[in-house]
Amino acid sequence: MIPNNRYFPTSLQERVAWYANFKTQFTIVATSLGFVAADVTAVTADNAVMQSLGLVAVELEAYKDAARQYRIVITEGNIGDPTPEFPEAPQYAAPGGVATGIFERLDNLVKRIRVAPAYTPEIGALLGILPTQTSGPQVPEVDLQPTLKTVSLPGSVVQVRFVRGNMTAVAVETKIDNADTWSDAGKFYSSPAELVIPQNAQGLPRSVQVRARYVDKNTPVGQFSDIVTTATQPTG
């Protein structure tokens, strides 16, 4: 089953963002509504799977795009051009740890929340379960933090994968070869971002540190992601 779309989003990435907000707010209000620690634990576990599924979907789409690019280069490139390497398959832990029925558990929980004696429309708005809503709410800005994964491609290209959710974009910054300061690499509105790293004079691999922050309209919000480090594959 799928919860009512009057409050529950329809796309996977919007659902991922919705779950992040729901888990955060439910953790805060659960006790006042009469719920117990086991209810919070169950929501937290279901949310962890949803976040993992969202990231896996982004990684698989990026891998498909990279494999397609390899096919184009290896078949349509000119003799003498550098030979690309086939993209490395994404590596991730399989989502798990919860039983089948995430959406049914959510639907049942929302029904219980709405009949709780202490429930108010204000709480419903925080949780994103008011029936008038047609899409997930914004995650509280102070809690926003992108999760990044990088893939190094031939030609000194670094792919940065992320889940944008209901934010406008992510602003990516880099440090190359342990530079002292971060450099702006641009705003990206869909995943993956592709960064072309300048080659050094020796044609050697370069160390690249990447971090990012969400952008809501034109304003950076939330916290920087954890720093992810990779190395370039220069053209031979």
Largest sheet: 5 strands, antiparallel
Q: How does the helix and strand content classify structurally? A: alpha+beta
The count of strands amounts to 8
Tally of individual domains: 2
Notes on the protein architecture:
The protein contains four helices and eight strands. It is of the alpha+beta class and 236 residues long. The chain folds into two domains: 126 residues, no CATH class; 90 residues, Immunoglobulin-like.
Key words describing this protein structure:
single chain; Immunoglobulin-like; 19% strand; 8 strands; elongated
Q: Quick recap of the structure?
A:
The chain is an alpha+beta fold and about 240 residues long. Helix content is about 35%, strand content about 20%. Strand 6 (about 205-215) and strand 7 (about 220) form a beta hairpin.
Write the layout of secondary structure elements.
Layout: H1 12-29, H2 37-76, H3 102-114, H4 121-127, E1 149-153, E2 157-161, E3 169-176, E4 183-188, E5 193-196, E6 207-216, E7 219-221, E8 228-231
